Amino acid sequence: KAQDGVVEALGRLIGNASADPEVINNCIYVLSDFKDNIDKYGSNYSKGNAVFNLMKGIDYYTNSVIYNTNGYDAKNTEFYNRIDPYMERLESLCTIGDKLNNDNAWLVNNALYYTGRMGKFREDPSISQRALERAMKEYPYLSYQYIEAANDLDLNFSGKNSSGNDIDFNKIKADAREKYLPKTYTFDDGKFVVKAGEKVTEEKIKRLYWASKEVKAQFMRVVQNDKALEEGNPDDILTVVIYNSPEEYKLNRIINGFSTDNGGIYIENIGTFFTYERTPEESIYTLEELFRHEFTHYLQGRYVVPGM
Q: Is 294 in the active site?
């Protein structure tokens, strides 16, 4: 654990201070060791946290340098064409074949993300581009890794593969929404809509609907107003999006563009609440408890104070 602490501290130091190409390239031994022992290290929090902070620190510092560089161009930084050894190791973590499992998926996901962001430091960025393409070929269509790789091509390579062909990321996102949110329920003449994963039961969805009625009745008794502040807003229709699990919910960051570092979130400007089904081990709040809380935010923004 002491060694892991040193690696983690190095990553944090690089992210908060600086590093030259030599220091960054010497980090390849840490990445190689982790990959060589991935069956043993994948579920080890201490080692995983160390490697994550190392990758994060290097990415943060190298990219932050660009903002203080002439023309905001990676070619004008000291890292351009000088950290290929590190990039090769990073790219190798994008595809680990049949070793991928729930314990080490985080490593692949982050390797894909950082490969996309740091490919611009290569003299030939298409090398990083091809690493993302290989991931799209290796992992199942619409798996998290497939969607992450596609997202990184979209963000960093104009949505094209190394042959210059469009990957049609909008179609991928649409297919993902259909796969992970196949069920739609409509209540109150279309004013309350639920889109849910296939494992979210109809009984659970109906309970949420009746919970909304209960919360609204209590809320109206307090505020004494049932007239919306503004008509014609997106919140005229409340949409509730429920993923099957916390893991699937993470995809919402990519396919809908909202933070998933939470138990659920209400986005007022589109009148939509995003969340996920959970077990007692995954959250101290039940789905209904969280829904009641966020539904109150919806009511506050609609009937009392805009922006709540």
A: yes
